[in-house]
Structure formats: C-alpha cells, structure tokens
Amino acid sequence: MPKSNSPDHADVIVVGAGVVGAACAYYAARAGLSVTVVDRGPVAGGTTGAGEGNLLVSDKEPGPELDLALLSTRLWRELDAALGERTEYEPKGGLVVASTGTTLDALRDFAGAQAKAGVTAEEIPADRLHDLEPHLAPGLAGGFHYPQDAQVQPALAAAHLLRASGARVRTGQEVTAVLTGPSGEVRGVRTPGGDLLAPHVVNAAGTWGGEVARLAGSHLPVLPRRGFVLVTEPLPRVVRHKVYAADYVADVASDSAALQTSAVVEGTPAGPVLIGASRERVGFDRTLSAEALRRLARGATELFPVLAGVRAIRAYAGFRPYLPDHLPAIGADPAVPGLLHACGHEGAGIGLAPATGVIVAALLTGAEPPLDIRPFGPGRFAPAA
Length: 385
Description:
The protein is of the alpha/beta class. Helix content is 28%, strand content 25%.
C-alpha cells in the first residue's frame, strides 16, 4: 500500500501516544504504512507515564497472555538493539519470594507449569536468596528467579518508538468523533484541529479505549483500575532485581474492586527505588490514598528492612485499562470495518506493547499474525442481541 504524503491523510491513524500506540505506529511504519498518531495529551501522558516499566513473564500463568509476553520479551531485546540505550532497557531479571513453605510449594507448581510454555525459572533456596539480593529480610522460605524479566523507562520507550517510526504525532488533540463512510467503514477521526483521514483507525487509547470504541459505534468495556507507586530518594543499588511477594500474582488476576496491595520493589539505573503495587477500582479518582501508601511502605520494608530509613520523595497514581477477563483487546472490530483495537492490557501494557504492535501491523497489511489472536478478539465483548 503506498504511503500518503498529505498531512491530513495517512494509511492508518493510531489513537493514543502511550507505549502501545507507539509500538503500533512503529511496526505499522516498518510494514510500509504512513501513520498519524493523535492523543489529547502529551506522549506517554496516561497509563504509560505512570507505570514502572515492567516487562514480565514471571507473573503470568500459561495461556494467551503469557504467549504474548514471551513474544514481547524477544521483541524488546530487538528494540533495545535498534534503539540503543535510549529506553533504559535493563534485563535484570525478577525474583519472586515466598514467606512460608506452603507458598513456596505453590510457586514451584506455578513455575513448573510456566516452564512447559517456555519460561525459564530457577528455584532459589532460602540460604541462597541473599546471593541475589543481599538486603532481603531474613526468614523467607525461598523463591524463584526469572531471568527473562526486564524493565524499561516507559515514557522514554514510547517517545523513542514514536521517533523511530517516523509517524506524524499530533498531541493535545482529542478525538471527538470517528468518521465513517456510507457503509459504516472507518474514514478517519475528527479533532478540534480538523479532520484526519485514513481507512484504518487503531484504538490504543488505554483506559479511554471504551470511549473511543463508543465514538465509533462499538462496545468495549474498558474500566480504569487505580494504582500507586512510591518513589524513594536516589540510592546505591540496594535492590538488584524486580522483587515481589508471591501474593502479587493472585492480586493481578483478582476481580475485586477493593484496595489490594502486594509488595513489589525494584531499583532503577537512576538510583530511586520504585515501590508498588496497589490495585483498586475507583473510577478516575486521583485522590491520594494514605492507606494505600502506608501499605506499600510497610510491604516494602518487610521485604527490605534497609528501606525503613530511606525517604520517599514522591508518589504517583496511574490507571490501568482493565477488561473483565484480564486479557487485552487486540484485533479488528467485528462491527466497524477499518477499526482495530489495541487496549485493555491492564498493568502489562508496557511489557506487551511490541507483540501488540506486530499483531496490529500484520492485520493492517494482510499478513499472518505471529500467534493465535482469537483469545484477544474484541468481538468477545459484543452485547448479546
């Protein structure tokens, strides 16, 4: 398909300048398409900018999401080679720890099932935990090391993917309508700055993905799930891996709307330690939750007592785009020709972005997707007739 040279025309419009939208733009452009990216805010101004940059396989049970994560793990390594050190990609690995023998047995079963799907995990007995993390609390029962886990700086990753894509990026322009033709096919989008035309629109609007779908006359039940992150003052590298307690996996898969917290602690190349993770469904309420922050601090110091004397210099909230079955929506909308969805990744969007982008590019060009995309089909949420 030839590229369009008009500033108001493109082969595809991507709605959303977070890391998922950036990955869709990058791979679509590599496939030879002209791309316009539009966002009502700045690049990485939504969920991406409020994320920790986790690229995880360790927290995913065997199934479609893990398949997506394993593909993305390979693609992030390729992107690191292509983009250089600009994304702060760090293949530091993850360490999941258990406080009791019963919990360790459950982790062992979980890791065994993951291994059959291609995940590498090594059991670490209690007396070797401090070889990996010298400042861990004593008395833990053991854990599992996941060398495939990694991290990027998410805002940098989104910005450099967009820059490398060569896409036209229009920030500060909210999409107010999805334009359609006489047969209901997509023709572009409307913004306060004017109409942008393209035969394909990719909905990568994160927590606002449901609203973009509605503008197109479709249905996608995306809900926001709020989470807080505590950030410490810069430190020497006291936390070497992404370290989290085993209950984090259960919290990720939970459908509860109530506040849940589980200890997740990781260092960064710049020095600050990031402390999570909390989850609760409170709409788009950004009110600072003292209870959530208190629980995060307590969980972190239980894992790493050395952090008890460290200052937390800030905290921030983000909204994870949540779908009822905990799988993202990736693929063509069954009711609106030319509309594709790439949203609903919850807290895994940064990790899953490259695979999502490759799938979207394949669908846009008629190529074969790299894996079975049926579990991610947006049509699974279509209202009953």
